């Protein structure tokens, strides 16, 4: 008899929160780069600018909103993906085919992206607030204050501003992260050269993070612009055409910091998830 551990439905949310605490400064710099109308600063310059103007703790602006987003967006997509995958795998038919993982990841990510949109929008606003003149700053105290004030001052519809882009990005990033991680881990273990250990988890999540970054960057740029707008865009198509006028590379603005943020975030998420599964997962004997 062999014993293995299955993930609990909420482990993905907890692991993502742990990763977000480590990578939040990189996410904040990425948002600042994407909301520049013209390319004036690169990643290191932007980070130094933030620290110089507002102090080191400013790199953690909007952390509460980031954690709120992970507990809505990531918890939902991991719960859907892992629950369905484990149910289908429990029949003894072996691992799911890759195309099924892609479809399941897309569905889980789309659903999670929609549910996480309000927290995501508040996260972007809180991170970008320090760039605005003092009289234009929103000054949300924390994520819940931001959610309540948007609902009270701008209405329920504004809470889901950019939901189409957030859901589409959620689908792509979940395919890149979860489906590609599972497939990469399956291929690495299939070689017989490495066991199911932290090195395998690191290598598989590194591959998954690279795939996710490339897939979702154009949508991430549009989503960030829409969420941070003050009415200058009429909708997704208008934002898309305005961004396209800046040239094709505008869709990949902030690609390096996005990768530098998303790849470590992906690695940390899956390393934390695998450790949670190992020590606190559901015991299955086969």
Automatic annotation (TrEMBL):
Solcar repeats: 3-87, 100-187, 196-279
Annotated catalysed reactions: (S)-malate(in) + sulfate(out) = (S)-malate(out) + sulfate(in); succinate(out) + phosphate(in) = succinate(in) + phosphate(out); (S)-malate(in) + phosphate(out) = (S)-malate(out) + phosphate(in); malonate(out) + succinate(in) = malonate(in) + succinate(out)
Bilayer topology annotation: Multi-pass membrane protein
InterPro entries: MCP, MCP_dom_sf, MCP_transmembrane, Mito_Metabolite_Transporter
Gene3D superfamilies assigned: Mitochondrial carrier domain (1.50.40.10)
Gene Ontology CC annotations of this record: mitochondrial inner membrane
Protein name as it appears in the record: Mitochondrial dicarboxylate carrier
Organism: Cyprinus carpio carpio
Lineage of origin: Eukaryota, Metazoa, Chordata, Craniata, Vertebrata
């Amino acid at each position: 008899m062999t014993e293995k551990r299955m993930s609990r439905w909420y482990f993905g949310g907890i692991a993502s929160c742990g990763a977000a605490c480590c990578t939040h400064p990189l996410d904040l710099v990425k948002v600042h780069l994407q909301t520049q109308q013209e390319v004036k600063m690169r990643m290191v310059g932007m980070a130094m600018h933030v620290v110089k103007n507002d102090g080191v703790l400013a790199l953690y602006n909007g952390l509460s909103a980031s954690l709120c987003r992970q507990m809505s967006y990531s918890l939902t997509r991991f719960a859907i993906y892992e629950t369905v995958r484990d149910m289908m795998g429990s029949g003894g038919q072996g691992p799911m085919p890759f195309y099924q993982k892609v479809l399941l990841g897309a569905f889980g990510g789309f659903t999670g992206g929609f549910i996480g949109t309000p927290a995501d929008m508040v996260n972007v606003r809180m991170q970008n607030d320090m760039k605005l003149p003092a009289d234009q700053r929103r000054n949300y105290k924390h994520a819940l204050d931001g959610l309540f004030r948007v609902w009270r001052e701008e209405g329920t519809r504004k809470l889901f501003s950019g939901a189409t882009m957030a859901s589409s990005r959620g689908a792509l990033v979940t395919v890149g992260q979860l489906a590609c991680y599972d497939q990469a881990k399956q291929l690495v273990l299939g070689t017989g050269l490495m066991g199911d250990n932290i090195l395998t988890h690191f290598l598989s999540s590194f591959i998954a993070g690279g795939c996710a970054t490339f897939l979702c960057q154009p949508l991430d740029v549009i989503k960030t612009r829409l969420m941070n707008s003050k009415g200058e865009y009429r909708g997704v198509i208008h934002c898309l055409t305005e961004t396209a006028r800046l040239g094709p590379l505008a869709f990949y603005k902030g690609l390096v910091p996005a990768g530098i943020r998303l790849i470590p975030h992906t690695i940390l998420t899956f390393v934390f998830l695998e450790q949670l599964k190992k020590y606190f997962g559901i015991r299955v004997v086969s």
